[in-house]
Amino acid sequence: MYFAALLARTEDGWKASDTELDDVETLSDLADLAREASPGEDTVLVLIEQEDAWFGVVRIDGEDDPRIYVSDAAAAARSSYGEILLTDELLGREPGENDADLDSLDLDGTEDGESDADDEDDTSAEAVPHSPVGDIEILDDLGVGEKELLTLDADDALSSIADALGASEVLETVR
């Protein structure tokens, strides 16, 4: 089960809206969607979670490049929404370097019978760690320090973040 919401900071506080990610194919699409939620240069947070598996935060400040944090890159890599967030830059690799590696991951538990599949999977495992990736300081100035961010559990992370922002009520209205 997935949940995605936009939190836009306004002069009157945080404004939340749920969002449908079916038409979002790239990080650029996601950033454009977030910018539409805030007509000014205000901060917009895109909060995404897959129940009990991983969560992600994308921060858009005006026209700046999106800042991204993903709690478990390997879990997110198995999700179509997570793949949007896992850019080459975020994973510390050259653009296009491991494009085939994500495709070669044995995500459904079946073997493809190729003799070099194990080598490809080993490379993929290194490229997509079972750990947080991204900007751990993404919410520092909003009241969620890096230490707190790193200790959040996927099952209640978005609620904890919203609570720290003073946006619990507005997030719950769209949940």
What is the strand tally? Answer: 6
Oligomer: single chain
Characterize the overall form.
globular
Written as H for each helix and E for each strand, in order along the chain, the element string is: EEHEEEHHHHHEHHH
Describe what this molecule looks like in 3D.
This protein is of the alpha+beta class and about 180 residues long. It contains nine helices and six strands. Strands 2-1-3-4-5-6 form a six-stranded antiparallel beta sheet, sandwiched between helices. Helix 8 crosses helix 9 (about 170-175). The two termini are about 10 Å apart.
Give the tags.
175 residues, alpha+beta, 37% helix
The gist of it:
By secondary structure, the protein is α+β, with helices and mostly antiparallel strands. It has helices at 27-36, 73-77, 80-85, 88-91, 99-104, 117-127, 146-151, 157-165, 168-174; strands at 2-10, 13-18, 43-50, 54-61, 67-70, 133-134.
What secondary-structure arrangement, pairings included, does this model have?
Layout: E1 2-10, E2 13-18, H1 27-36, E3 43-50, E4 54-61, E5 67-70, H2 73-77, H3 80-85, H4 88-91, H5 99-104, H6 117-127, E6 133-134, H7 146-151, H8 157-165, H9 168-174
Antiparallel strand pairs: 1-2, 1-3, 3-4, 4-5, 5-6
Helix pairs in contact: 8-9
